[in-house]
Amino acid sequence: MVGRLEGKNAIITGAAGGIGLETTILMLHEGASVLMTDISDAGLNKALSKVNSVVPASTRTGKVEIKVVDVSNESQIEAAVAHLDAWGGLDIIFNNAGIMHPKDGDSEECPEDIWDRTMNINVKGVWYGSKHAVRAFRRHGKKRASVINTASMVALVGAATPQLAYTASKGAVLAMTRELAIVHAREGFRFNSLCPAPLNTPLLQDWLGDDKEKRFRREVHFPTGRFGEPVEQAHAVIFLASDESSFVNATDFVVDGGLTKAYVTPEGPATEAPRNLAA
Ligand SMILES: NC(=O)c1ccc[n+]([C@@H]2O[C@H](COP(=O)([O-])OP(=O)(O)OC[C@H]3O[C@@H](n4cnc5c(N)ncnc54)[C@H](O)[C@@H]3O)[C@@H](O)[C@H]2O)c1
To answer: Coiled-coil ranges per the record (predicted)?
Structure first.
């Protein structure tokens, strides 16, 4: 059977772990070629070994490579996009890299340097990725291309456990993505935001640690009683990346187990979580 992304060339930022790594594996399963990028060289090399063991070269039609990219550095993003010129040009970019800094907090607590750093990675990184993707799509005469930008559920609902810079940055991702989607709609370039709920990835789980109270404060809001898994986000990304979603544009694509639609949540045991592909 032909993969849902057969022959497409993709870049994923923040691909060394979490959502980015799960998405890499699924994209390869679906026939895409993937350039995994991340700020962490060691993380990328470890992730690539994992990818090669889960999707061995003999089972895939696309290629996979790694490249160190700091998304807050425009020339590095530009070079990553240009790297795919030799592959036939970019078709998909998943602007997924993001940080949630432990020193972030409410308006009094968040230091200015943390505010700037968060904006540089979470907002400017998405802008640079989108900008150079559009240039590449045009350069290669692409008529069907997809940009997926990772925002967050916290851009849609307020939280009494504030991380103001992070929340503001993700709100900016939603607004920017929506506008880009409309600007480029007649070129066939689609832009959608992914809005994950709190997940079982290092970004959040390292921060929560063993603090049961902090953990429960969040878990109680999940209708399913559990955090989301990165593979559950990755499946949504595959849909948004593929031509199956050709009429899905400018959405805040929420993958949250119903969290943002819940008033009072059910009691009882949590639902079973799917196994992540890189687990
Ligand atoms: N984990 C959650 O609860 C959650 C919820 C909503 C949204 N998100 C968003 O999902 C995205 C992916 O996060 P994740 O949960 O998979 O976390 P993660 O920490 O596993 O992955 C983030 C990756 O981004 C990389 N990165 C950090 N700064 C970078 C930079 N300047 N340039 C390039 N790469 C950089 C990290 O090295 C890491 O590999 C982020 O944008 C995050 O804000 C996460």
So the answer is: none
* 150 Cβ contact list (under 8 Å, min separation 6): 14, 19, 94, 95, 96, 97, 98, 173, 193, 194, 196
Fold (CATH) for 9-255: Rossmann fold (3.40.50)
Element (H, E) at 93: strand 92-95
Q: Is 263 a catalytic residue?
A: no
Say whether pTM exceeds 0.90.
yes
> Which residues, given as ranges, of the chain have pLDDT below 70?
none
| Cβ proximity of 262 and 216 under 8 Å | no
> DSSP class of residue 228?
B
User: d(Cα 216, Cα 213) in Å, to the nearest integer?
Assistant: 5
Question: How do residues 241-255 score in pLDDT, each as one tens digit?
Answer: 999 999 999 999 999
Residue-range domain boundaries for the chain: 9-255
Q: How far separated are the first and last CA of the chain, in Å rounded?
A: 26
The protein residue whose alpha carbon is closest to atom 17 in ligand 1 is 203
- List ligand 1's pocket residues with C-beta within 6 A: 13-14, 16-20, 38-40, 43, 69-72, 96-100, 121, 150, 152, 196, 198-199, 201-204, 230
Which residues are 252's β-sheet partners? 193
The DSSP bridge partners found for residue 235 are none
